[in-house]
């Protein structure tokens, strides 16, 4: 079962940010932050964890 977290960017821990960055790189995404707004405004980050491994990420931006 996936455990979901809905966090404001200011609530992300260093280990969560690191896991997020590793996840994005592993997905072969050409850009880690395509719009430059990951850590601005009221953006939310939805993280999905399974057995302590990050398996899903989503940014919910105010745009």
Nutshell version of this structure?
With 63 residues, this protein is of the alpha+beta class. The chain is built from one helix and three strands; from the N terminus they run βαββ.
Describe it.
- The chain is an alpha+beta fold and 63 residues long.
- It has one domain (3-60): Aminopeptidase.
- Helices cover 21% and strands 33% of the residues.
- Strands 1-2-3 form a 3-stranded antiparallel β-sheet, covered by helices on one side.
- Strand 2 and strand 3 form a beta hairpin.
- The longest helix has 13 residues, at 14-26.
- The chain starts with a strand and ends with a strand.
- The model has no long low-confidence stretch (mean pLDDT 84).
Rg from alpha-carbon coordinates: 11 Å
CATH architecture: 3-Layer(aba) Sandwich
Estimate the strand proportion.
Answer: 25-35%
**How many domains in all?**
1
**Assembly state (oligomeric):** single chain
Could you tell me how far the N terminus lies from the C terminus, measured between alpha carbons in angstroms? 31 Å
* CATH homologous superfamily label: Gcn5-related N-acetyltransferase (GNAT)
CATH fold-level name: Aminopeptidase
Describe the global form.
globular
């Amino acid at each position: 079962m996936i455990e979901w977290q809905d966090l404001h960017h200011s609530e992300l821990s260093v280990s969560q940010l690191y896991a997020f960055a590793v996840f994005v790189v592993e997905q072969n995404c050409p850009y880690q932050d395509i719009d430059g707004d990951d850590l601005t405004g009221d953006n939310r980050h939805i993280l999905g964890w399974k057995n302590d491994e990050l398996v899903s990420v989503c940014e919910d931006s105010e745009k």
